[in-house]
Specification:
The protein is mainly α. 79% of the residues lie in helices and 0% in strands. The longest helix is centred in the middle third of the chain and has 46 residues.
Length: 117
């Protein structure tokens, strides 16, 4: 029983911290945050209109490319917001787990004592 408590309040607690860090790392990989930040102003799905010879074709290409970049920015920004909310939520859950981890054995003991009374 002593080994269980020494593990619970020692390496077990650090294991919970490491698991939270792994979850956050996997979430960063799932959202590809580095790629999203590097390509924030890139055209959406690489949709690019190449300008023609006339002024009208050049202006049309400029407008099409501007719209494509705006759509790309909006979509990537929304995904970054979702990633931020996910990170905050997962961090709060991890913090709650770290806070409650040392209290769980005490709760079990308290419930056993309360059941005996």
């Amino acid at each position: 029983m002593l080994d269980l408590f020494s593990w619970w309040y020692g390496s077990g607690w650090f294991g919970v911290l490491a698991a939270t860090q792994r979850r956050l790392s996997r979430l960063a990989e799932a959202f590809s945050i580095k790629i999203l930040l590097n390509t924030l102003f890139s055209p959406w799905k690489r949709i690019i209109t190449y300008p023609g010879a006339s002024l009208d074709a050049k202006l049309r290409a400029w407008g099409d490319n501007l719209v494509s970049r705006c759509v790309g920015f909006v979509v990537r920004f929304i995904v970054l917001l979702a990633a931020t909310l996910s990170f905050v939520g997962l961090s709060l859950l991890g913090l709650t787990e770290l806070i409650l981890w040392p209290l769980l054995p005490l709760v079990a003991i308290a419930l056993i004592v309360k059941g005996l009374l």
